[in-house]
Amino acid sequence: MSLLQNINMQRLPSHIAIIMDGNGRWAQEQGEDRLFGHLNGVESVRTIVETAAELGIGYLTLYAFSTENWERPEDEVSGLMEILVDTIRKEVPTLNKNNIRLHVIGDTEMLPENARKELNEALAETAGNTGLNLIMALSYSSRWEIEKAFKEMAADVKAGKLEPDAITNNTLRQYLATADYPDPELMIRTSGEFRISNFLLYQLAYSELYFTNTLWPDFRKENLYEAIIDFQQRERRFGKTGQQVKQQ
Ligand code: IPE
Ligand code: IPE
Ligand code: MG
After folding, report:
1. Which of 23, 65, 189, 195 to mutate to test the pocket of ligand 1 (most atoms within 8 A of CB)?
2. Atom nearest to 80 CA in ligand 1
3. Which secondary structure element, helix H or strand E, spans residue 33, and what is its range?
4. Which residues contact 67 (CB under 8 A, 6 or more apart)?
5. What are phi and psi of 181, to 5 degrees?
6. Per the domain annotation, does 3 fall within a domain?
7. What does the pLDDT read at residue 205?
8. What is the pLDDT of residue 248?
9. CA 58 to chain CA mean position, Å
10. CATH (domain of 61)
């Protein structure tokens, strides 16, 4: 019996963000090299994207490559970039078939030319889709994003376009790479690490966090269902008391 029956379709998280971790350890367990893990991680990406679209989730953000990941050994980085280019090229027809719109957040200037080109084409080719918004965090880190936001805000103040007194927390939000998306309601991290690793520091303020020991290449449909069921059992208080929440 599938866990799907236990999901309340009326109370789905509108935005799920995932730190897809554990590819390297998964490969190591099979006596293979790290790239083998990344290749198998792509299968999980496919399944999870498809599952999120089937469920009718509005936004899915996948942390695929961090700013800090550029520091990994050169062959791993170039292998990952190849997998990226290849995957985007192959997946665009499926994205279109499933009405999925691709978005990217991150310092894409850092990506190799061919990856940037594939990515831009995929963004343009899926721009008209109105179903799931798939946001890939590529060469992304939250501190990079916040630094960029502050630079742009400071430039606007200097140019007289923004009054310092008018700055609110909503102003900062509008300068972030995620300005067009709601905050994640559920954040999942695989592989048993209990940390955020520079992911959406501002946006996760009130997200429900779900950590699982499952390594990313093993994370499939039922694992996502399990995370959503767990999310639906939480009481989200947003600073209020439990009693206030129940009376709402
Ligand atoms: C996540 O898996 C993928 C990326 C960070 C690109 P890892 O490559 O971090 O796998 P582990 O954490 O070493 O097992
Ligand atoms: C976080 O995983 C980044 C991605 C999943 C893309 P890492 O494997 O880079 O994180 P740390 O180094 O364990 O914190
Ligand atoms: Mg890792």
Report:
1. 23
2. 6
3. none
4. 106, 107, 110, 139, 140, 141, 143, 144, 198
5. -120, 150
6. no
7. 98
8. 87
9. 12
10. 3.40.1180.10
Write down the catalytic residue from 21, 40, 133, 183: 21
Is residue 186 within 8 A of residue 230, CB to CB? The reply is: no
Q: Structurally, how many domains does the chain consist of?
A: 1
CA 108 from centroid of its chain's CA atoms: 15
Tokens standing for residue 173: 């939000």
Is 69 annotated as catalytic?
yes
Only one residue has tokens 């900062």, namely 172
- Residue 4 inside a domain? The answer is no
Segment-wise mean pLDDT, segments of 10 residues, the chain, 248 residues: 95 98 98 98 98 98 98 98 95 97 98 96 98 98 98 98 95 97 98 98 98 98 98 97 95
If you measure from the C-alpha of residue 20 to the centroid of ligand 1, how many angstroms do you get, rounded to a whole number?
Answer: 7
- Write out residues with Cβ below 6 Å of ligand 1: 20-25, 65, 69, 80, 191, 216
21 is catalytic: yes
Distance between CA atoms of residues 59 and 53, nearest Å? 9
What per-residue confidence (pLDDT) applies to 35? Answer: 97
Angular region, 145: left φ>0, alpha ψ -120 to 50, beta rest: alpha
Q: Is the pTM of this model over 0.90?
A: yes
- Domain contains 242: yes
Whole-number pLDDT of residue 96: 98
Domain that holds residue 89: 11-247
Give the C-alpha separation, 203 to 128, whole Å. Answer: 26
Within-domain flag for 5? no
Q: Give the model's pLDDT for residue 1.
A: 78
Q: Which atom of ligand 2 is nearest to the CA of 21?
A: 5
